[in-house]
Structure formats: structure tokens, C-alpha cells
Amino acid sequence: MIICPKCKKELKDGSKFCDACGAKITDTIFCPNCGNKTSKESAFCEHCGTAIKKNVTAETKAEEKSQNKEKRNFDKLPKRFRFGAIAIVVVLLIVFVGKQFVGGGNQEYCLYLKDGQMVYDDYSKDGDYKLTSHLTDEVSASYFGPDQGYIVSRFVSFSENGKYVFYPDKYDEDVFTLYCRNVKKPKEEPIKIASDVTSYNVNKDGTKVIYLNEEGGLYSHDLKDSEKIASDVTEFYVDEDLEKVGFLKSDGGYYLHNKDNEKIASDIESIEHVSDDLSVIYYEKEEGLYRQSEDEEDPTKISSDICAVQNIYDSGEIYYTKEDTLELNLSDYVIDDMAEADQALTEPEYPEYPDYSDYDSDEEYDEAVEAYEDAWDEYDDASNLYYEKELRDELRESLQDSTIDVEVYSLYYYDGKESVALSKNLTSNSYYLSYAQDSPVIMYKEYNQDTSAGVKLSEIESTYEVENLVRENLESTAISYVAIGEQTSMLEQKNATQIQFSSDGKELFYVEDLADDEESGDLYKANISEKGVQKPEFVDEDVYPYLLRQVDNHLIYFKNYDSNNNRGDLWVDGKEVDSDVCGYKLYFNEGAIFYYSDWNEDKRNGTLKLYKKDKTTKIADDVYSCMLKEDSILYLHDFSWNSYTGSLFRYENGNSEKISDDVNCIIF
User: Fold this and answer.
1) pLDDT at residue 503 in the model
2) What is d(CA 248, CA 216) in angstroms, rounded to the nearest whole number?
3) 332 is a domain residue
4) Nearest Cα residue to 118 out of 29, 63, 183
């Protein structure tokens, strides 16, 4: 049973719209990362922490835009600034990439938490020592579970040669004291960079730090002294060498750091993209999108009334959307199959009951009564037909005056000079769209307003029914398109879901023909060229759609997936690799895939394995978490949920070596 969220009426299972008030009933959603069912009201997956792309209403847009500003900007920042942005992004990087931290040389060392403190270990006999002494006042065994290393790992950085490590101590809700230590001289006192730090960046050789504190102070530090750059800063950007610094202040002004802190733009509400050399920024203010170059006096206004920036490419090309309302007349979607019959109907006359005094005999009177009864039956039938006709007339009149407003989006492409509208009828769930990361290719769905397949008037009783049917028809008949630049190409498959692009935008993968439980379907691949989307090729059947991935030119997916226990059969490039594999714990490294088989969701452990070049290698049983290094992998074995500790091992060249016991979690 389903309860309407608007009017609270009890509805049948599977209802898509309330038949009382017309409100849309949202189906169960699946996390795009781990594939688990999760609440549509959640901002993040309850199982793995992935951000959930939700249908965004007008009431929630401003709030979501503010909450997601840092997350959206993360992907658009210069790479050197991406360290330490927000926790959820780091979770995804750890799970799907494994080695995205700054610097580190040949990485012949690791960091882990033990007794709630951070430990550095270079794998030598006496090469381990504690970096922190008061990591957090609220530390407990359960605070740092086996998968919680990201809590502090996002604030750890190494110089490129691995000589210096920068790390937090006295951590309290993303505010910490920042320290630097020469790892080759463990007996030396660490260098205290600053207290109350919220984010920072380090140059390649570890000799310069740019950091932001809780009060909005932005500073530069050379491992000896601090120099204040600005106050009231909300976010900052740096180039690769930290020679150039840009920052946004609380008053909406964006500045480049120099002698006078040159002001580049004013009244910014959110920064959408900054070029790697910080010479160009794209930002929103007053719902308009602007481009500002440091060598131009005035900004270029790209568009007004922006709803969402989908992606800004290094080439200057942009996809963005605007919000609109589509007004539809309900009468356009109704076929009046009763018009001719109703026109022929007239209101029946009420039969009069015979008066006994008008008849000469009982026999005549009885005959008249019998005739009256026959006439009454005819009248009753005709009256019912006429009453139904009157109801239809009322419905016709109501339909003529009834319209529905459907939330739609318009998609635009900006080529660096001017904008072109690609579609003005994007579906209501198009706040976020699927696109290729490195090339201007994007997929969208457009409402099909064809009214030829309308509902018959004889089959409906209220305008609510028509509204529900119209909305269902719009959703079910929506047409998918792929845009390459400004060129659009229709995707023949109407029910394509979980669409994935290769990063270069040359390949498209999707699942369609979902089963009734929506947990399996047919997997297809389509090549994309300048001519558009090519004819799709069938890849496999019974594919779980919500864990479809393409990594390092390998197509990775699951079959026979049990979303309640988060495990299924892992397939790579059309070949079955293993069974009972955990779907949300996959690690990729230069063509190698690390995964957990025999996954036990209750214990949250499994057998860690390596798959590379069509060969599977078992690493260890009873593994709870792992992290990829340059030429090795760290894993936590035999973890105890009573003490929240396990044994840390290092796997390299086919051999495992114990690093330490009683470890809480892996950091680096």
C-alpha cells in the first residue's frame, strides 16, 4: 500500500499519481554507486554515502544549490585544490579509484589509525611512529570503523617526493590544527602551521601552504612564517605551484592575490568553474551565468534565468538548463467517443401511473398497470443513460476549462560565443543530466506531446483521471536524445536507463527492458561519432542497471544481483569474473580490479581478490577494507566489531606482510 505524500490517501501499489489530488508518487530509487535501494528523501545513500541525484522541486532548489555548491565545484576546481574538499567525494575516490591523494613519491609508507591516533609507517622494523596526540576529543572505537579513514584522509597530503607529510590534529567537525613533519626525521618536533584550519593546499615540494581558517582568514605559510592574504574568505583556488591564488569573499567578490588583491568580479552567488591557471572563472549571480577573464575589464553574460549548470568544459563549451512550465489542455488528450451517441439522447418523460377511475374494468386497469411497469423499466434505463450523458457533459465542460502545469526544463549549449536552445521540453527529472566528462556530449529526455493516443471519454469519470493519465503518458513516452555539441541525435530506445558515457564521449552504455522488479535488464552499447549515435549493439541480458561502470576502457557490470545483501556476479567486458561479489566495494588501478567475493553483508567482510588480464588472484579472506598504493595494496584483516580493530597487511608481488595489529582503519 502507498500513501499519497500530499493528501494522505491510501493508493494501490504501483500508483504513479494520486487519483484524488493528482500528486506524483515517486518510485523507490537506487543508489548510483552501491546499487542499494534508498530513500528518495535522502541527500546521500544510507549504505555507502554517495550523493543521490534527486528530482528537485522549486521549493528545494535554493537550499540544495547552497548545500551542493562545494560538491559541484569539486569536480571543476584545479586538481591541486581538490584535496580536502568534502568527505563524500573522497569516499567515492577511495572506493572507485584508490589513489588520488597529492604527492607521495614511490609511496613506500602508509598511514593508519591506531588507538584513535594517526600512525606513519615506512614498513621498516622501527619505522612506525605516531603523528598525532589528540586527533579528536570525541574519539571512540566506533568513531573510526574500518571504512572511516576518509574522515581524516581528506586532510592528509604529502610532498611529491614523500619527504613531508601534512596532517590534522585536534580534529573537530572538519576544523583542525594543521601540522607538517619531515617523515625522515621522526624525532624532530612537527611544524605547526595553524589552528582552526578548514582546508589547505600544498605545492609539489612541500615548501608552501595556502590555508583557510574557520574565521575566513586566508594565509600563505612557508614552513616558517604565515602571511595573511585576505579576510572573510569562503573558498579559494590555486594553480599547480601555488604561485597564483584566487578567492571568493563573503560579500561575493572574487579576487586574485597580488600586491593589491585585484578584484575580478562582484556579487557572485556561486562559482561554477575555474580554469586551471585561474585566468577564467564562470559564476552565477542573480540567476545569470557569467564568464570573467582576468585580462577583460567586464564580464561576459552567457545567459539569464539559469536553473543549473550541467558542465563547463576546458574548451569553454557549456551545457546549462533553464526552468519553465508547460501548460497542457486536458481536453486535447481525450477522445470523445460518446459525442454522437450523446447528441442523439433526449431527456426521457416520466411515465404516469394509471388512475383506476379511468378504466371500466379491473382487467383493463391491470393491463394498464402492466404497461406502466414496462414503461417504467424503459424510463429507468433511458434515465440512467441520460444521467450518464449529463455527467459526461459536465466532464466535457470541466475538461474544456482544465489545464495542468508540467514542470519542464530547457537545455542550452554554449559554444564559447553564443547559446543555442537544444530542447525546451526536458522531463521534470532533468535537473541533473548524464554527460561525458572530457567532451561536450550530453543525454536528455524530452516529453512527447503527441495527443493521438488519447483516452476515451467513456473510460474516465473525472479530470483527475485524465491528469494522471496525461502525466503517466508524458513520462512513459519521453524520448531520449544525445547532443554532441549542438548536434542532437535521437536514441531509438525509449526505456533506456542508467546511461553511462565514456569520459571522451565516444561510447554510450545503458540498460533497457527492465524486469518487473526493475533490478535487471538488457545491456546495450552505442558508439558516438560526429554523425550522432550509431546503432546500439546488444551486450548482455539480466544486467543489474545501477552498478554499470566503464573504467580504464573496461565495461564492468553485475548480474544476479541481490540488492538486500549487496552482492552478485561480477562481469568484465562480457566475461564472468566471480560470484557473490560486493557491488559497492570495487577498486581500480591501471587495468587491475580489486574486489570482495563471498561477501557477508552482516559481517561486512569478504575475500579480497585481484583480477587482471583475465586472471583472478586471491589475496586474503576476512578482509574488511583496503586501499590501493602505487605498487601494492593495504588491507584490514580479521576486524573485531567489539574492539573496532583489526590487523593491517600489505600485499605486494603475490605476498602479504603484516604491518601492525590493533588498527582502526587505513588512511593512506
Assistant:
1) 86
2) 10
3) no
4) 183
What is the per-residue pLDDT across 264-283, written as a single tens digit (0 to 9) for each?
A: 899 999 999 999 889 899 99
Write b or e for each residue in 369-408: b if 16 or more Cβ atoms lie within 10 A of its Cβ, otherwise e: eeeeeebeeebeeeeeebeebeebeebbeebeebebebbb
Report the distance separating Cα 425 and Cα 409, nearest Å.
Answer: 6
Phi (first) and psi of residue 109, to 5 degrees: -170, 170
- 582 near 570, Cβ under 8 Å? no
Element (H, E) at 668: none
Domain range holding 80? Answer: 70-309
* 668 domain-assigned: no
In angstroms, the CA 624 to CA 618 distance is 15
Q: How confident is the model at residue 106 (pLDDT cuts 50, 70, 90)?
A: low
Residue 641 C-alpha from the chain's centroid: 31
Residue 436 and residue 317 in contact, taking contact as beta carbons nearer than 8 Å? no
Host H or E run for residue 430: none
In the chain, % of residues over pLDDT 90: 43
- The verdict on residue 400 lying in a domain is no
State the CB neighbour count (10 A cutoff) for residue 633: 23
- Flag whether 29 is in a domain: no
- The total number of structural domains in the chain stands at 1
Residue 257 pLDDT > 60, yes or no? yes
CATH of the domain at 280: 2.130.10
Q: How many H helices and E strands in the chain?
A: 7, 47
